[in-house]
Design a protein that fits this description.
Blueprint (H helix, E strand, L loop, with lengths): L8 H35 L3 H37 L2 H6 L4 H15 L1 H4 L7 H4 L3 H33 L1
Helix pairs in contact: 1-2, 1-7, 4-7
């Protein structure tokens, strides 16, 4: 592997920002079916109300998850990226996404009563909070970790081949 001098801290920060943004976008796509189901349920069969509900719901969900993703990015991704060597992250490329996913789902596992309604009859209603947050957490963490590792690996391979 090439030396870590091949990837500056600014470039690492840029890779982290790009990977975080792509993780957020994939998280939005993963949660789109849930948002559609909620909009259909809340619009009560009225087409105009469905469009308004879907647009406002997507806007609110997008802003909320952007805040969550930014907090996760600032508290976890940036310190990890700035303290660990990129070649080590590339070597751990199979372990890191799994660990990131487990970390993303840890809140749901540690506080189950906060995320599900015990009085609900149907699966969807009982876990209506877990499903979108779980889908977002898994997709955001997997894509962010995978994208950052991919960018670092590509840069390190390019630096190695040129020297």
């Amino acid at each position: 592997m090439a030396t870590d001098a091949a990837i500056s801290r600014w470039r690492r920060g840029g890779y982290a920002a790009l990977s975080g943004l792509s993780g957020w976008l994939v998280g939005q796509m993963a949660c789109l079916p849930v948002n559609l189901i909620v909009a259909v349920r809340d619009s009560e069969g009225q087409p105009r109300l469905f469009v308004e509900t879907l647009l406002y719901g997507l806007l609110a969900w997008g802003v909320w998850t952007m805040l969550l993703a930014t907090a996760a990015w600032a508290l976890v991704v940036v310190p990890l990226v700035m303290t660990m060597r990129p070649c080590l992250l590339v070597r751990l490329r199979f372990v890191l996404p799994i660990a990131a996913t487990v970390g993303g789902l840890s809140l749901i596992a540690t506080r189950p009563t906060m995320f599900h309604d015990r009085s609900a009859v149907y699966f969807w209603h009982r876990f209506a909070q877990v499903i979108p947050y779980g889908a977002f957490a898994v997709s955001f963490t997997l894509v962010t970790a995978w994208m950052y590792i991919l960018l670092c690996k590509r840069r390190l391979d390019r630096a190695e081949s040129s020297s």
